[in-house]
Each structure stands twice: as structure tokens, then as C-alpha cells.
Records
---
Amino acid sequence: MAYSEKVIDHYNNPRNVGQLDKAASEVGTGLVGAPECGDVMRLQIRVNPETQIIEEAKFKTFGCGSAIASSSLATEWVKGKTVEEALEIKNTEIVKELALPPVKIHCSVLAEDAIRAAIGDWKKKNGVAEAAEAAAAH
Amino acid sequence: MKIQSNVAVPAGVQLPIYMDNHATSPLDPRVLEAMLPYLTNKFGNAASRNHSFGWEAEQAVETAREQIARLIGATAKEIIFTSGATESNNLALKGIAEMYRERGNHIITQVTEHKAILDTCKRLEKQGYRVTYLPVKADGLIDIDDLKRAMDDKTILVSIMYANNEIGVIQPIAEIGKLCHEKGVLFHTDAVQAVGKIPVNVIADNIDVLSLSGHKIYGPKGVGALYVRRRNPRVQIAAQIDGGGHERGMRSGTLNVPGIVGLGKACEIAQEEMTSEAARLTGLRDRLKAKLEAELDYIHVNGNMEHHLPGNLNMSFVYVEGESLLMGINDIAVSSGSACTSATLEPSYVLKALGLGDDVAHSSIRFGLGRFNTEAEVDYVAAKVIDVVKKLRELSPLYEMVKEGIDLTKIEWAAH
Ligand SMILES: Cc1ncc(COP(=O)(O)O)c(C=O)c1O
């Protein structure tokens, strides 16, 4: 299979590889996928409690080149966004940016899931979920 | 972090390196040389009986038949030319099933066969034949007792491959052949990966029908042969391609003379060089294995290493996904059992038959060493694989979790 240049670039130079302290209150962790499916992504964000801006994002991925590239791209995209803005990121945008072929679309879905899972974890830790829902109810 | 960095390329090593010789092998220059006249001025049809062009072609075909027969301990008359082992396997199974239908309808094979056997068996099942697919043990070998138990009075054919194309495991062929002959059951073997690599003898091994292919033994693609025993027992095969009645009526079609000449020459070379080549490839294979094992943890070899082809090494690099590893070593041609590299998006059914979990099957690489690989290439491949595996593990959440002592089987993964 031929990879797009952007996939190769992210694969070769993955951005924001690493780990944040899971236990920290300002950190949200998303672990998605399954080893037997051939891909597992862990995406972590550190959110500024004042501004709700994602100031740092880290990832580690077990998976094919497209899975690595999708998660690497996801960390780049969430950084600097507020959590609500980050939730707007769609897997189709990842597909487009990386020119993923149809058989690799699940990699982008997994990356979107990872963003949502990380934000969900952070919200849970910080009791934001109720606040957001309460706000939405107004 | 950079996944692909520059691992020093030893002097004399040309990139990319081809180390996928189970998929196909390069043409030996000596084979090409033997073929060339038959691609140019010696173009005759081997079936033309009334002029020198035909005689010349026929002579060349008969020489090739001798060369092939000699390599497997057969006689020239027992060799039927085909377009390759896929056709040989189809002809053997369908031809025997059809011819012996009155005697019985039961066929025994095993789960790790090549698709050319498995899919042929599936078609025969649709036509009313009964097929038993024997399991393999964790090391890839079948259990002879399973075979004994599977045989009944309707069994007409056993088809067990000589050596596996993914894991290189060599089945106890002589033992299987002996059992089949005791029971009066025909024995076919897909010997594509074994012929020319290890000693194969149809008499000593009690083989009745055997498939082989040119392009796995440094010969041309699109040519193969089927050995069909003529005595004790005389095997009969119903033709699957009708026409001019070539190849004793078993396989019609104008013979691929240059291909056949190449196949014959490839067999001759293989016979002459087998002993030294096998020793050299075993040495290279063990060198590669030792280097990888010295530097990497959580790796293991797939398949029994004692009953094993010289040039094969199938390894799982656990917690690294196979396709991402191939991407990192893209100046080396090998293959992976990862689902991502297959058309079906399923991990290798051969590895799964050994009882490997999908996660470990996804992490496997097959190295196929061959005649033209060198020690310097092996050293480069080892260094490159070690480098990329280490980096991909820095990137692997699974490796990190295991290193922290987390039991991955206890995690509730959200399968997708
Ligand atoms: C074990 C085995 N059987 C059969 C085949 C098919 O051979 P051919 O390519 O000559 O049709 C192969 C090669 O892919 C093989 O490895």
C-alpha cells in the first residue's frame, strides 16, 4: 500500500509522543482500541483550569502507520483549542488531511474517539459534565 | 523522536534488500541463460512432430522432465507440466476426487495449507465431498494420531503440505506417506517450499502426487509441475483442462517451453547446491535470530525450529504492529502476518492456527532468506529491525503498560 506524504511524515516524526501524569486533576486520558484489533491509542491532554484551553497533548499508539499518523495529528490539532472546540474535530477532517484510503478510515475514527475519551475523562475528574449539560439546558 | 534514522549500511549492501523468498525468488542468472534460446530462435512447439523446430523443443522439455524427476527421486514420465503450483494443487485434488469418486468422497487436509489447497477443498465440499481439516499443534506440526483417527473407509486422499510458506515448519511427510500407503489412501503433498531446499524423495517419503513451482526455486514464474506416481500405486487423475491431450492427457495446452527449460535448470542447480546452500542459509537465519534475540525483549519465534526450512524465520515482535514495522524498514522486503497487510483485514490464519492471539499475529514478520542474501545484508536487517522495533515500542502504550507491570488481559478493551 502506498502512504500519503503526510502519513509518512507523521509516522517518521510523530509529534507529542509521551505520557502525562494520569493522576493529575488537569489531565484527561483516553485509551481506545484493542490489541486484538491491531490498534490501541492513548491520548492525553492537560487542560488549563482557568481558560479550559488544552495546553499540552501527548499520545502513544500501537497500530499501523495510519493509526500512528492519525493520533499524532490529533495531538497537534487539540493543542491550543478549548475542550469544547476540540470536541468539534471530526474524523473526516483527519481523513482529508492525511489522505487516508477507505480501508484506513477506522484509524481516524479511533483518533476522534481518543480525543472524546480524553476530554470525557477530564470532564469527569473536574465535574464539568454536569456544568456543561446545565449550561446547555438554559 | 524519529522512527527511521540512519542505520549504517555495510559495504557491498545494496538497498532495497529482498528477503521475501517464500513469496517468490529472483531468477538465477544461470536459469535465464538456459531459457534465452527458447525465447528467441528455438521457438518450436514441443508437440510439432514433423520438423526440427518441434524436435528441438521436445528434446528440451524432456531434458527438463529428467532434471525435475531426478531432484525428487521420480522418473521423467511421472512429471506433468502446469502453469504453477496453484494449478498443480487444483489438478491433484480435483483430478483425484473426480477419478476416485466411486471409491469414496472423503479428503483429509490441514488448516495451515496454502489457499490453493484450502479453496480447492471448499469447492469440492460444495460438490458433495467431505473434507477434514486437521488442526496443528502450537508448533505448527500435525499430530499423526489425529490423522489416523480422521481416516475412514471413505477416505480417498490425504493432502498435507511438505513445508509451510509462512512459518517454514516441515511436516513428518515420510510418516504420513507410510500411514497412507498402509491404509491404501492416496497421498498428495504441496512441496512448493520444500523442493530444492531440503531433500525430497517421493519413494522414501511414500508420496503419490506432489506439487512444485518454478518461481520459488530461482526459476521463472508461471511454470510448475505435478508428480503423478505411475507404480505402486498407479495414480489416475481426471484432466481439468481439455484440449489437445498433451501431458498424457492430464493437462492439455501447448507447453511453455522456455518456462519448462528454466524450471528444469533451476532443479538441476538446486540439486547440486542444496547441501551447501541449506547450511549457509541455516547459518544466516540463526545469525539473524541470535542478533534480534540479543537486543529485544518480548519477541518469539513462530513454528517448530527443529523441523524447519533453512531460510525461514517467522517472529512476533509483541506490542509492535506489523504494518508499522514494515513501514519503518521499508528498504527491506519482508512480509507480515498483520491484518493491515492482507486484503481481508484478517491476521494470518496460519499463525492463528498455532493458537497465537490476534494481537501477537498482528506483530509478526516473516523473513525469507534465499540464495542471493549475504551475511552483510543479514547484519543490516538485524540492526534496522532492532532500531525500529525499539522506537515503535517507545511509541507503544502496550509496551509501556507491560513494563509498568499492568496485565493487558485484565483491561476491558473497547473492541471496535
Ligand atoms: C505452499 C504454496 N503452495 C502453492 C503456492 C502457489 O504457487 P504458484 O505461485 O506457483 O501458483 C505457493 C506460493 O504462493 C505456496 O507457497
---
Amino acid sequence: MNQAIRDKAKELLASGAVSCVIGYDVGSDGINARPFFAYTEEEADGLAFDQTCTHNLVKYLIDRAGKATAIVVKPCDARALTVLINEKQVKREEVFIIGAVCHGIIESTWGQKGSDLQGRCQTCTQHTPLVYDLLVGEPMAEPTPKAPLDHRAATLANMSVAERAAFWAEQFQRCLRCNACRQVCPGCYCAECFVDQLDPEWVGIRIDLPEKWLWNTIRAFHLAGRCVGCDECQRVCPVNIPLGLLNHKLEEEVATLFDFRPGVKADVPAPLETFKKDEKLGIGE
Amino acid sequence: MSQLISRSDLTAWINALLAEYTVIAPTKVDSLALYQPVKRADDIFMDFGITALSPKEWLFPPTETLFTITTQDGTMKLEAPPLDGKNLIFAIRPCDARGFRLLDKVFLAPPADTHYAQRRQNTTLIGLACSKALPQCFCTSVGGAPNDASDVDVLLTEVEEGYLVNIVTEKGQAAVAQAKLIEKDVTPPSPPNLKPVSTEGIVEATLRAYNDDYWERLADRCTHCNVCAFVCPACYCFDVRDHINQGKTERLRCWDSCQAPGFTRVAGGYTPRPTKGARLRQRFGHKLLYYPQQYGDLLCVGCGRCIASCPVNIDIREVMEDLQKLGVKSVSARA
Ligand code: SF4
Ligand code: SF4
Ligand code: SF4
Ligand code: SF4
Ligand code: SF4
């Protein structure tokens, strides 16, 4: 797999088809992968793919608009890429997609070798990316869907509104308003995010519960029907707020109301970006 | 002879401290260890390795009101916020305590920052020596040590019989007044060994690299997520803004980070640090060049939090190594 990625990367760089290949190499702990930008054939030898390649790299493509780029994607990343292409943030013709067959990513912390699959990977239904120009790895049968593993999802669903609010207040209380969740999210590319806007000032500068609450709920709504469940936001959150629970809930709502899963089909816009006369609104129905 | 406190007497002591101080100590919050105010000794989580966030928020809070202005019957009133009571940070790591030394140089240099100075004055630090080092730790390379008592008021060291109590300052003496200490001949355990990182010539190396492509290459993978600054015991970027609500104006100071794209944006929209590389250079420039030039020490205590928390593995030790090499011969960044 590594050799196939390196060979293709070298070929693309040598021919000038792309000027950069975005993939993974091994991080400073010698265990876990990290994003890697290869600009030369020599650098392409550092490219590698394994079950620690947790990062969703497609957001880097936005900064490389106008420059042909090759990128390594897992199935979830490929869905995020389709979202970005549909939303006209990335041009399909500027990207060479190296799709990696994914056996799931291992839950790990820096400096330690993990062993269990990440929660999102245990319930994932794709091993093979839906879009690619080159597929690396041995294709295999797709897994059957499983219910969400985080027991908190079921617990939350059975709670009263007040109990749920208390749960989230406790979680959001820890939020630092560092915006890391936004910075890594492929769907958060707004030139000026609502939270940074000064006029009008939607959210004040305070790092207190009302602002934290507003931040996390509005961001979740902006991602409804666009979030691909890559869990990058949750992974980078320095205080472990289970943002995935919120995103997953909204993903299911959108799927029920609009029969739509983001990033599955090219050229199908997200429900909240369109308006159809005969569409269910979910209000008073 | 050393002073020793037994485990049960430690609990009694902490409970006594609670009557006099707000005790801030490592607690377990979901799967995280965080410094939080505790209500009883049992709430303290002693086996914490390193907490997810440094305790800097207890001297430099994420949000603080600098002053408020209210208008009543045509008169304007400017008021300072009330002073915090007496705080005690229990089980602070030597590296985090050293972080306060670095913040002191900035906030206490004349004219001193009133709020920071008041909190600093009213806070007692009870240190806990590290019995284990994590793979990301490198305090010994930046002036600290796992058993360094220089920045705490009391240093505790765990031994079989309980904890050795090393009283360092008068504040520490006052804090242990109610502790039942016994004199005993106990040899302190030897501190864990840490892998050294070279910081030789790093100030000059960082200056030499100022215009190097290195920064843009390194910043390729940086997400500018601010996590490194928010978890760091030595970072102190902030933003100041007025909050106006029903005739009351509050001037607020909140945490910020030099990695945020809007951090240096000025009126009219101009940004003097427009590129990812320029922003990342600021992070390391501040830690390895500007702060040392002004205050002598590197702006890093080697706690390793940024290394473990950076989502894309930008490792300050590796950056230092790269910068040292850059001066010698041009190397391509490990971007
Ligand atoms: S909201 Fe989180 S899980 Fe959803 S696409 Fe963004 S980073 Fe991924
Ligand atoms: S939270 Fe909303 S406004 Fe902010 S970047 Fe994300 S999608 Fe855009
Ligand atoms: S990453 Fe976590 S702490 Fe940071 S803003 Fe998002 S939810 Fe809050
Ligand atoms: S934590 Fe890493 S990715 Fe985030 S701003 Fe710092 S260096 Fe960049
Ligand atoms: S720069 Fe990193 S290692 Fe140094 S004190 Fe800050 S968080 Fe700790």
C-alpha cells in the first residue's frame, strides 16, 4: 500500500501533473501518523498509510485552490471531499484522489500505541472510498451498519429536555472557545465565521457558558446535513467534549427528514442549502 | 532528617486547608484530569500524570473583568472587580509552577498587572514532585526538574510512608501550620530520567531562520487550532474588548492565541501576519527568541502538553532541532 502511494506520488510529481501530494508520514513519537506534504519525488518516499492515519486532510485543499494536488483519502475523508466539491470549495479537476481501503483507525494518544478501533470506525459502513482516481489496498466486502457505540447516545435519547440540557451544560462548561473544532472541520471554511464577526457581534468575547453554548450549538447546526462524521472536531477538542454525539444526532435527523447523507453523491446539494416546495419542514408535522 | 506526612494526615490537612483557602487541585472530569476547586480531600485525583490544561487559569483566567462603567443619574462610575479570596493550588507540577515564574516576568514587570499581582499574592502553591515522566516531558532541558522546588511554596514527594514535605517559603510555612508533620530519616526517591533535548544556541538559530522557507513548510500542516497556546502554562496572549449590556460597560480580557487567523487583524482589515507560516513563526519566535531576548529564559517549561495535544504533531523539540540544523546547512523542513 505504501509503495503504491509512493509510486503514484512520484509519477504525478515527476510529470508535473500535481505540484504537491498531501498524505501521511510517521510522527515524532515514531508511532502515530501525521499529515505530510510531499513536493518532490524524494519527499514522496516518506509517504505512508496505516491504521493511525486519523486526520481528515481534505480541508488542506481549500488553501491550495488553483494548484493541482494529489491527496490520500479514507472513505470518510472522501465524503468530506465530495461535500467540498459540491459546495464549490474544491475543483474536482484540480485534485488527484488516492483512495485508501480503510480497515478502521485505531484510538490512540500521542506517544502510545493504541489497540482498539475508534468508535466511529466500529460503526462505519464503508471500507472503500466512494470516489478516487487510484484505489490503494485490497478491496473487501463492506461491513453491515451497527448502532452507535457511545452508550451516551441512547441515554441522551431517553432523557427529558431538561436532563439533556443539563448534560450539555456540563460538557460545554469545559469548552475553552479555542475554535479547534472549527479549524479542523472540513465543513467550516467560512471566510468570516459567525463567532468572529464583530458587527453584528453574534457571540461576545467572554469564555463563559452562554457563549460556549451558543458557539457549540450554532456550529452543530451549520454542519447539519454537511457533517460527514469524521470526528476530527471531537478528536482535537483539548477538553474531550463529545461533539460527535451532537453531530451524529443531527445527521440522523437530516437523514430521517430529507433522506440525505452528506458526501455520498456528487452534485446533490445539502438539504439546508436548497428549498423544495414539496419538502417536509419537520415543523408541526 | 526529613519532614513527613502520612497519607491519612494528608487528608486531614487538606480538609483543614479547605476552611481557609479555596483549594484548587487535580480532579477527574470524565476521562480528563483538570485543576478544579474541590470541596473535600476525597475529590482530589492524585494519580494524574499531567492535567489536560495547565493551572494557569487560576492566575490568568480565560475571562476576567478589568473594570466596569455604570451610568446613574448622569454620573459615570468606574469600578474595579472584587478581589479574589485566598487560593491554594494543590499538587501543582514543578513545570507548571515554573510557568508562573515566566508569567510573572511579563505581568509583574512595572507597571504590574493589578489583577495578576493580586491573585499571585493570594495564591499558595503546593507542589507535587513527579515520580514518573511521560514521553513528551522535557523539563530538565529548559531549566526545570521533576523534583524542582524553586517555584513552589511547599514541595511534596511521594514515598512509601506518605509524602515528604519540603517547606520552601513563608507562605508554605503558613500553609503547613495545621499539618501533622513527623521527623523521619527517609531518603527521597531519585527523580525519573528524561531524554535531553538540546537548546544550545537556539536563540541565535531562531533569529537566523527568520526569513527561511522553513516556517511556511512547517505551517503547511498546522491547522491554527490554538490548542498549543491554550494548553500551555507559559502562553499569555489575550484580547481585550468592551461588553455593553443595559447601560453597564465591562472591559473584558479573554484568552486568545497568536495562531488565530484574526489575532493581528487591525481596523480596516489589515493583518501584519497574513500567512500560516508567519503565524507559526510567531509562536516559536516568541518562545525561543523574543521572550528569551527580553527576559533571559525560554518561554517553555517542557511540560509537553503542546506536543501531546497538537492534532498534527508539531513538536517543539523537533522544531528546535530543525532550527539548530538550519543555521549550519539548509535542510528541508520536516513539514
Ligand atoms: S463537524 Fe466534526 S465530524 Fe462533522 S465534518 Fe466537521 S470535523 Fe468532521
Ligand atoms: S461554525 Fe458556521 S460560520 Fe463558523 S466556520 Fe463553521 S460553518 Fe462557518
Ligand atoms: S475544540 Fe472543544 S474546547 Fe475548543 S472550541 Fe471546540 S468544543 Fe470548545
Ligand atoms: S496545536 Fe498544532 S495545529 Fe494547532 S495551532 Fe498549535 S501547532 Fe498548529
Ligand atoms: S511550549 Fe509546549 S512544552 Fe513548552 S511549556 Fe508550552 S505547552 Fe509545555
---
Amino acid sequence: MGFLTGPHDPAVRTDSRNDREDRVSTSTERLDALRGGAAPVDHNARTVAALAGNPGCDRRAVLDAAGISKRDTAVHLGHPAPFGQSPFALARARSFEELVKADRCAHLLRLLRETLGLPIPAIAYVDVPQAGGQATRELRHARTRKELRLAAESAVRDGSGDGTLVDHPLLTLPVAGHEVYLDPAVLAVQAGGRFHIVEIKSFAVIDGAADSAQVAAASRLSAVYVYALKAMFAAEGIDPGLVSHEVVLVCPKDFANHPTATLLDVRLQLAALRRQLSRLTRIDRILDRLPSDLTFSLEQSPAELARAVRTVEARYAPECLSTCEMAYFCRSDARGCGSLEVLGRVTRDDLGGLDSVDAVLDLAAGDRRASSEHAEIAEQLHHVHAIYRAHATAEAVVA
Amino acid sequence: MSVVTSYARALAVREGRAQPIATVRHLHLAADPLVFIPLRLAGEAAAPLGAMVGNDPARPHLLVVPQPRNRDLRFAFMAELARIMLPYIEGRAAATETVPGKNERERYLDAPQVIVPGRGAVEFVRLLGRSTRFRRPDGPYPVDPAVPVLGQWLTYLYERTEFAGSSALVPMTEALSLHWATGQSPMEDANLATLLAWVCPPPGRTGQEAAAAAEDPVLWPPAGPDTDPGFDARVLRPAIDAYDASGSPEPVREALRGQLEPTWRLMWRAVELLRGLPEAASVGERWAMDRDRYTREVARLAEGGPPRGRRDRAGSAAARLWDMESARQSYDAQRAYDDPLVMAEHRATGKAFAGEVVHVDRERTILLPGGKKPVSRPLVTVRTADPVRLAPGKKVFSAHRRRQSGEIVESDGGLVVVQLNDQLAKGAGVPGVGDAVCFTELDLGGRIRPGFPAAEETPWTHGGPPAAYEPTDEDAEEDWS
Ligand code: SF4
């Protein structure tokens, strides 16, 4: 598979082959140089899902494409990110998954039949044995491919055929030139001729409703698996359309430990992911604008690293705080230059088109003339300023 | 959302501290509110880990679950919580007043007010209510009789938050954000410590510096219900292991005390800040609504009213939705009428205008369509600098004489002519030349709810008449693992 291409995605098959390969090798060298000798970070489904977090940000695109650890970079810059997972949450997730998968997925098979009404007359359970180590990853991946191919062939041949449940599958996805292994807590199930990804999550569905932020995160994650599965099918010459965009989400019901299943439509998340992955493959355009000796090596001093990072344009927004390890560094820069972005999208929309705190306040006070495109917001601000002065300054700000 | 708030946020950045966006307090503040800071075990939907609760800043009650996975300990925690919360909640049912009118009734003069750190805690209150209200003191899994009662009250408190303007269960970060705009984003405002850092930065520091310091979870532990993952790994897990080994809850108590005390102090600091603002004119009216609902709930529970079902029925859902809409509408309008800074937003967007009366035609009369006698319809001309976007014929209300309505006759070049339509007895309601006035299209509401079919008449399109909700044994025995 070509370097730096998205998985077999029509959207990225635009360049002619030679052209692409030439460009690819120069980009690869550039990206390796940017990383400055460090080993590329190991992506996983969660980090791949996060790629779609701030698609407009060049800084993030370059760091991700080069496989640079944003976490280590942020630490070196003196702005460590506040991310972490509680050991209790991890333990809970593990024990719920074990429960669902106990006895060769007995619970799960029942759920797929009952809850989803999937027409599964008989299901073959196939386990791709887990074993550690890089070498066996290849084996597991090959085995996964084989099992899925067999299942697909039988599905195509018999119309619907019997179901197949593949446990511990190992999928891969090329992200910015590196094969990413997706070692999922998920399974792929073939039923009625369609393949579904099964995602097991330990957040509760209470009286038919779950925390929407958690559901959204699960959707983004599942979309990565769906995407990888489609890619694998395409590579095997099987119709990727056999992979359903409906994911089976298994969660505990109410306050008990009993699993319940729901179908989750991840089309939107797939589209976002596809856009971002293909964007990473077009990283050249960003690289072309960067100085040729640029490096993000952690060997340099924090000040030098900060200078290097700043040569790539960022697009900070408060949402970065929950999606990107660089957030504290980028926020501090955005604040430093008086950007309005730090105040959030609502404020930016309210103050349509203005980009700095100074611009807002100077226009409001009449200390600056508005350009014609900002005439309307300037007039409104001027007005607000007058009313605000009349009422707010009379009120003592609580000390 | 609001140009005024956004302007004030920008100003906060430049000034280095939060800026006021209200001149009065838009919520009721009880003389002794109950502050409640619940914590939950990470990864669990509703497993309580601990709480700090009380209505005396000097005497917080600390409750902990030394092994949060133990079901009995969870119910023991809920029983202990009930022993603190129920006397406070039920104790408000004392003196009453008679509310006159068509629907004459008695109403308690007081009602409970519970203040929690933020939206996450409100949601946790809902889950705690949901996980306890169906329990029974008898049967296969008996619990302390106070537990299901607390469950009903927590459910009641949560449901009040669905109505704009209720002060029964108040998320503190939202209460503060209603009155101050910080120089950070709304997302960051959900952190009580950083929000307060902006509102009252320590001397010699800007809000930004103070907020950055307050982001350190070691100095300022999260206000819950979720704890800091680092704390979970380094402090809490060893403390729980110690309990498992020795049976002593002390290590967990001490760990949680350290997590909760800073937030406890912040909560009371915030209460004092809000108390420093004079109460807005309509707050009493809205609090009366909370007292009304509280009175009804006390009576319902006294009659052995069953816990609310797991889901709303179609009929009551439609009525509730209507009530929620109407509460939202009057709340938005009332705040604008009560507070010139809130009205500023409507003036800036042309939905209201303020100015000085420059001409009055007091004697003007017109003949209403189909009428025989001319009626008084005075004209008032107002000079305003506001960008008026109210077309002739538009119905408006006077911000100063509430509920007096009129309509725009013409509006041109900063002069607006308004015809007054009511509250004109003996010319009393007509302003004089030189008076400051403000007119707005905002309607204070107070409409009567249209009749929704009673539960037993629910149309078949909505599932037909529901079976009355009877809590089942299954509900009562539901796992809480
Ligand atoms: S935190 Fe910085 S690098 Fe990350 S997405 Fe936001 S702006 Fe880009």
C-alpha cells in the first residue's frame, strides 16, 4: 500500500501514481526530520479518532503526520496537558468487557439476537488468539483478514448465510504513512450479509438514555474501526459496502451490570474522519511553507522548541482543551496575542468577524475606525459600550 | 448569544478581572441554603464516593463510602445523607400563607434551596434520585425507610431545574455566570475554582494568572462529581485498599476531606458574592412558584404519593413542555425588565429602546373598529439613540409600568411615536415630557396553559391512556452494583 495514502479511499486516489510516490518520499523525509530522531508515537483508535478533533489546525496536522508525541512536546514546552484516566474507570471498563465476552460471548450473542433482532440463525464464533509482541501482530492481522474474508465470501455466496463473530480482531489503518494497529475491544459480526462493528463501553444506559458526551466519544471511536474494516475489505477486493455504518454499542443497563445493546449510526463521524485522514495525506502543502531546517526535536531547549512549534500556524479554540495535548501551550500563545478565540465560539460568533480583544474594545470605545465589513458590529458595540458605561460602572465590581 | 456578555468578556480580558453583566441578583438566595458537594467513583454511573453537605459554613458534614463498590455501604451513605438532608428539606414546611384567587390555597412561606457546584452535580442528583426512589424498606432488599424518601426529594429538586428561573436546586457556576462575564470561555467557566479566580482574583494578581493557578488539581481539586484521575491513582486507591485491609475508613475520609474542603470554601465564598447583589424585582414571584411546587410535593408525599415513573407519560410530558417553554419566556423577559444591563442586550439588537419623552399628546382619542364611542389612546414621542427595529403596528410594553401595552405608530431618525393602549385610568399612565422611558416587545407572559387532555384521555396516537405508574418489585430490587 502506498505510503501516506489514506486507506483505499476513492477520495485520495486523485494524484497519478508516480507523481504521488515522488512526493510521498520527500514528505516522509521531511516528516522524519521534523521528529528529529525520536521514534514515531504509537497511534491507537483513540488518537486516530482525535485527529478529527480540530481539522482546521495546521500545527496539529503536522505533529500528527510526523508521528510526534504531542504529550512529550507539551511537557518539554512547560505546558503539560491535564489528561489522564482514573484506574477505577479502567478497571470498570475491563470487568464489563470480560462479562460481555464471557463464555465465548454468550451474552453478546443473546443480545444480538434479541435486542437487535439481527437474523442470526447460527453464529460461528471465531477467536483470533491474543498474544503480545510486534511480530505476532502481523500474524493476528493476517488471521483477522483471512477470517473476515471467509465470512464475507460465505455471506456473498449464500446471500445471508450463517453469522460469524470474530473476537479479538486486529485491524490496521495507514495514518500519515504509518500502519496503525487497532487492537480493539470490539468484535466484528457478520449477520444477514452485513458486517457490524461491536463496541463495548462501560457507561450506563439509564432508562433508555446515556450521557451524550460519552455516546459521541464512542461514535467517534467506532467510526475508526468501521473505516479500518472498510479499508481492509477494499484491500481484499471485497465490497466495502458490506460493512455497515451502524455499530452495535453494548453498555450496562440502568444501575446493574446487565449488558444492553443499541445500534449507533456513525455516518457523520466517518465523514469527519475521512476528511481528516485525507487531509493528512495532503500535508505537503503545509510542509512547503515551512523552513527546510525546521525540527521539533526534544533535544533543543524549550525556547527553541517553542519557536519551532510557532512556525506552524495553530487554530486554538477552547475545545482543544479536551482534544489536544498541546492545548495549554496554544492557549497561552492565543492569550498572549489577545486573540478572541480563547473566549469561545459563542463570543466569536457574537462579535462576528473581529479577531482580537483590542479590536473589539477599541471599536466599542470609538478609538478605531471600522472597516466597511465590520461597520455593523462596530455600531452595535459602540452602542453596547455606551449603555454598559451608564449602568455597569455605577455598580461596584465586587472586590 | 449576547453581544453585551461577549463585550464584557473582552473587557474582562483587558481589565484582568470578571465584569458584571447584571446589576441585580436574578435568583433567590435563602438565608441558609444547603450546600451539597457530591463525589462519585470514576467509571460508575451513580456510585457515590463521598459528599460534603450542610447549611452552616463552619460545620460541614463529611460523608464517605470507604469501599464504593460495596452496595451496603452505598445505602448506608444514602441513609446518612437522608438524615442530614431530610430535616432541612422537610423542615421548610412550617408557616403558611393563603394565596387568594380562583384557586385559593395555602402555601409554605419557605422552601428548600440546595446549591451544588455545577451542572455535573445536578445530573448526579438526578441519578441519585433515580437509583433510590424505588427502593423499599421491606421485601428482599430492604433499605432504611429514609432512603426512598430522599430519592423522591432529589428527584423533585432535579425536576425543578428544568424550569428556568427556579432556585430550588442551583448549580453555582451557572449562577455566577449569570452575573459576571470572565475573560475565559464558557467551557472553562464550568470550573468553579477558575471562575471564582476571575470574579475575585487575589490582590496583585490578574484573573488570568489566578485562574491558571486554580487549574492545578492538586491545589484546587475538581468540584466534582468526578475526581481528579491523578488523585484516584495516587491517593484514593491506596486509601480504599487500606480500608479493605484494615476496615478503617479513616484514610478514605481524610483523602476525601482534602478533596472537598477547598470546594466547600469556594461555594460559601460564592454565596457571599451573590448575596452582595440586591435581589431583582421578579425573584420573589419566581420563588413563590418554587414554594408552590414545594407545598404540593409535601402534600403529595404525605398522602403516600408514589415515586415518579421512569419516564414521563405522553399527556404529562406535553403539559410539562408547555410549562417549561412558558417559564423560559417569562424568565427571559423578567430579567430584562428587572435589570438595565440585561435590557441593554435587547436595546442593542433593536428589540427594545430607551430614551427621553419629547412630546405627549395626552388628549388623543380614536374610534376602535366597530366601536361607537371614541376611546383615549395617547401618543408619546420618544427620542432615542438606540437602533430601533420595531415596525409600525408592533405591540410593545413599557419597561417601567409593567404590563402597560402600546404599539409603535412610527419610527424615524431617532424619534419613535408610541400609542398607549391601556392602564390609562384618569391619565395616570401617561409619562410626561422629559421622563426616561423604555419600551420593548418582550412579553412577560403569564399566559394560561391550554387544556391538555387529562392522563386518562391521552389520544391513542400517543399511546392511549397510560396505566397508572405502579412501582414494581423489580424496581425496588434493581441492582445497584
Ligand atoms: S491545541 Fe494547538 S495544536 Fe492542538 S488542535 Fe488546538 S491549536 Fe492545534
